[in-house]
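Suppose a colleague, Dr. K., hands you the sequence of a protein chain of 57 amino acids and asks what its three-dimensional shape might be. Before reaching for any lab equipment, you can write down a predicted structure in C-alpha cell form. Begin with the sequence itself:
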Amino acid sequence: MLEEGFNDEAADGEDETVSKAQAAKNALLKRRALDDVIEEHRLNKRLRDYDFDLDDD
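The predicted structure, expressed as C-alpha cells, is then:
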C-alpha cells in the first residue's frame, strides 16, 4: 500500500516535469512567433523608408 502511494507521487512529479517542459516549449514558440512579427515590421519599415530612386546619374 505504501508503494502504491509512492508510485502515484512519482507519476505526479513526472507529469509536473512534462507540463513544465511543455509550458517552456510553448513560451519559446510564442516568443519566436513574436520575434518574427517584429522582424517583419522592421523590414516593412525599412522598405517604406528606402529611397528607390536608383536613377541618380
